[in-house]
Amino acid sequence: MNSIAASELIINNRGAIYHLDCRPEEIAATIITVGDPDRVGEVSKHFDSVEIKNNHREFVTHTGFLNKKRITVVSTGIGTDNIDIVLNELDALVNIDFETRTIKENLTQLNIIRIGTSGSLQMDIPVDSFVVSTHGLGIDNLLNFYRLNNNEEEKQLVQSFVTQTQLNNNFAQPYISSASGALLKNFVDGFHHGITVTCPGFYGPQGRVLRLGLANPALIDNLTSFTFGQHRITNFEMETAGIYGLGNILGHHCLSISAIVANRISKEFSKDGNATVENLIKKSLEIISSTI
């Protein structure tokens, strides 16, 4: 098998992968991703013990134990450009031999669970509630650089989305990928389920107007009104579709869980978003440490 070139797989002087600055033995098979580097500590403070703490750029990594389960929490920063780095490097840490720079014969499947914040696109999903993404639908372009093979339902869903919203005109070609059923089944009680749209920005790409006019002022209405069978769009944010798309291609189990801190239909924002995120962290950790 051909060795992966040093320019493609960058390993630093301590034998760690370039951006995350982690060695293979420093990450667990169950990984929680958060956007905010400061939120890593807000997750790991609930661990029984923390054995590894790494910090490089916006990528902060803590690995420890909760109820005898080894868990890694890593910050991604904002956006699918960073997700491209984090997902590829997490996979490399478990599925590439750093000594020979070759892909391992026996591949490891990671459980990758995003805990983040999001904006609701439905009146009946209020601020301070929790959403689990059944699908990640990207309008950010990342997965158009990879070979993503959709099943028939996914193909029909994304085609229906393009037809109903016309968001492929002057925008990136939308893509879609599904959550891991093995993880999704554990997050039912107390969670809304639906499609999460992943945007390439926070202001114009999410329909916000400050001083700049919008090329697509009907964006919010188009997303809110979209339906395909029993599916609807529940929320949008900036990472989920990238995690699902890359995770599925690489063979990992991925799930995205969002604390709703804004409702874009009712124009409300959470009065205490930090408390909502803390509640989601505790609820998610209880499920992760006991059932996954």
- CATH C-level: Alpha Beta
Give the number of DSSP strands: 14
**Helix and strand succession?**
EHEEEHEEEEHEHEHEEHEEH
The 3D shape can be described as globular
Largest sheet: 5 strands, mixed, barrel
Could you explain the architecture of this structure?
The chain is 27% helix and 29% strand. With 292 residues, it is α/β, with parallel strands linked by helices. It has one domain: Rossmann fold. The strands form 2 sheets. The protein has a 5-stranded mixed barrel. Helix 2 runs parallel beside helix 6 (240-250). The mean pLDDT is 97.
Would you spell out the secondary-structure blueprint of this structure?
Blueprint: E1 30-34, H1 37-44, E2 49-56, E3 59-66, E4 69-75, H2 80-95, E5 96-97, E6 102-103, E7 111-120, E8 130-138, H3 152-165, E9 175-178, H4 181-184, E10 192-198, H5 219-225, E11 227-228, E12 231-237, H6 240-250, E13 253-263, E14 268-269, H7 273-291
Parallel strand pairs: 1-4, 1-7, 7-13, 8-10, 10-12
Antiparallel strand pairs: 2-3, 3-4, 5-6, 7-12, 8-9, 8-13, 11-12, 13-14
Helix pairs in contact: 2-6
Keywords:
292 residues, two-stranded antiparallel ribbon, alpha/beta, Rossmann fold, 29% strand
What's this model, at a glance?
By secondary structure, the chain is α/β, with parallel strands linked by helices.
